[in-house]
């Protein structure tokens, strides 16, 4: 069926895009970027912690001295130089040659987001089921929904995904579950980390049921107290696609991420990516490669960790000092986010306009669920605002909550 006038597109859209709506986070960006608003809503890294002059100099050389490659087309899989460097980065987390990781099985992507999109293109037919933590990353929900898959949430607690709940969800899916999508370490949006013991249990369950695992790990190296538990991919080499990105450890503006795929899958991933983007940006890949080759990137990760640990503490202290009774929240050991549960009766989405009027922003919990849950939750970011702004934001937020509770 076509629209009534040529300029009416409603009925012309493909079925898969009809349900698309503006992400709650994107809709918020317009207001939260106003300087008077304390935004606890974003997920931006604190780029000012980078040695920007040195990065700028490196970028200049990339154009002037290496322009014939950095400004040219490249191959779909990504440059071998970068894929080798990516293997060095993964080795930090215990994913190395001894676990079967090889540059040959790395596919460079346009951020972690394209990695998710490629996984969906490869594995999801309309009506397929994806199992995912409840709550989970809003951008992954968008990708799975665009692929017309159904997301079924698996319950989690302070120790991460609950193994018995995963068993139950697999049984309920009646064989239609294509994969488990999981963010085991410093999860977005909760900040929660799956325990060592549960990692083994989850892998065991997936293995027994022949369920593929899509492990999304943008935050694993950003730990505040010791090292995080090793990724699932460091424990098992088959049946897992491992996704990560330089967005949180270097710079999201470059849009460089990657997938480490089982060897049997890698070729199809490259074909899907070529159909999608031809090849990742040669310039951005060159920038990341040069950064990893010539700059102290391990030290930079430590700097990010220190800055974020201080801000996490500022947020947790402020919540403890100021939140109304009945509010609870997670205590992340890394990453960028805290997930709070509001006192009974408060609706995070309904409260948001009043919070913005009080010059503080957060992300309502409903965005992180495919099933309408999360009305009593909010996600708070601590990576971007400095500690004094975080404290001021929590002061404003608690004022709004006290007013709501008094209504
Ligand atoms: N996965 C998760 C869990 C994320 O939190 C994000 C970014 N917020 C992404 C993927 C996307 O990463 P990128 O910005 O590199 O596309």
Structural class: alpha/beta
Strand numbers in spatial order across the main sheet: 2-9-8-7-6-3-4-5
Gross geometry = globular
- What Rg, in angstroms, do the CA atoms define? 21 Å
**Count of DSSP helices?**
14
SSE topology string: HHEHHHEHEHEEHEHEEEHHHEEHEEEH
Largest sheet: 8 strands, mixed
Strand-residue proportion: 5-15%
Which molecules other than protein and nucleic acid are bound? 4'-deoxy-4'-aminopyridoxal-5'-phosphate
Which regions have little confidence, pLDDT < 50, spanning 5+ residues? Answer: none
Secondary structure: helix percent: 40-55%
The end-to-end distance, rounded to whole angstroms, is 49 Å
* Number of E strands: 14
Look at the structure and give the mean pLDDT: 95
Protein name: GntR family transcriptional regulator
Subunit structure: Homodimer.
Family: Belongs to the class-I pyridoxal-phosphate-dependent aminotransferase family.
Domain Aminotransferase class I/classII large: 64-397
